[in-house]
Amino acid sequence: MDVNYVMRKQNQTATMSLRQWIITLVTMLLVTCQSNAALSDQYLLALDSFDDLFNTEPAEDEPSTADDESTDSAESLFGLADDDSMSNDIKSPVTGFIQFEAAHTYPSPSHTSKARSILHLSTNGNLDNGMSWNLSGRATYDAVFDLTNHYPGEVRDDRDLYADVHEAYLDIPAGDVEFRLGRQHIVWGEMVGLFFADVVSAKDMRQFVAQDFDQIRIPQWAARAEYFGSDFHSEFIWIPYMTYNDIGVPGDDFYPLSIEPPANVALRVNKPKEPSRDLSNSSFGLRGSMLKGGWDISAFYYRSINVDPTFFIETDFTSTPTVIVTPEHTRIHQFGATLAKDFGPFVLKSEAVYNKNTYINIEDLTIDNGVIQQDILDYIVAIEHTTANNTLLNFQFYQRWYTDHDDKLMFDEFESGVSVYSKVEINDTLEAELTLITQLNRSDWMARPRVTWEFSRNWYVQAGADIFGGQDVGIFGRFEDSSRVYTNLRYTF
Asked: Which of 206, 209, 208 has its CA nearest to residue 191?
């Protein structure tokens, strides 16, 4: 995957068996548990839950902002005390999680679609002159390819076993400015279940959006400079070599392309075509935010290569008639803004992004490589309320406006949708969630019910479903045959 260190199995003889993988994970778990036995209560409290570890849950009385994420230091994320005597040493043992995931796709032909193990390890430390560093890595193994023969070999090669550097960065303070150099998350916006102003991070889309955002986001290799004022924050980012969305390969459950060529016409889907790795294809962005009268407002400009590919179509009649599809990443300019305000009974959030010269696929594949360029305005408005019994309710309305709408498009000039999210704390250890997203222009929807049980201090188990429905042209309806039920088990250390 990009410039990460990636290891993938190429054939059955080179495959790590399920038994070997489990033994490896259990061994690492036992070693980790033994090292953690000496931790003080301060560390145990700091790592009490997944949300504390990654700081993903906003405070209920404050709007969630991207600034909160960008200014969190390694100390606040992992609950470490400020101890100058440890400035040149690792301040904590290795932390992270081990997660086991199983899923069964129930539409015909029903099949086991996931039996994945994830190992995430992270460590950090301080250096002289106030500098600090953070390093994390992730390895996954999906035993579904050893347990079933449902998927083609290309899908096995793509996602059965791989490992990569997750984050690897150095923080350098310089007065009111802080520099972060290396592989890092850059989050400029966050809505429930949807991406709008979060334009910088690449995403692992091989499970579509049917996974937690900490699993979806892929960091970028970047240089970031941030200025912190009393009520103003600004940042500049430069990404010399882009990391792009991982869309998987044809034959997988959530591959985003579905084309049925005419009879007696073959179909060939090429590997994604990425721009050359030279500085002329680097990306940069500017973002400023301020807090005024309780309003948290930000604006940004981002010039980049689009992390999401467009499928360019051509035909070859030299021998056997063939439709050739090539996913390509093209230049894009994005202007965006976010706002948030706490009104007491509810929190208001909004994001808007104007996409300049975006390539969009059209229905007539014989015209202009099956794509046209469009200017697009995406925006979303959300209202969030927490009841007295700690039930979280979130309502979102979103819309896409093709400002120079072309009749060749498969979509209307205005494409609208709504979403509802609710999380209910049944007791101290049990909570239930429901996410519903639907398009208003046509039948196209997704439902994600889930129950989480924290049955022990560092353990939780989840059970849920990812259900898709609607027309094939829809964002969600195209994956109707990939609807599934699942369970996850996670140990955090």
From this structure: 209
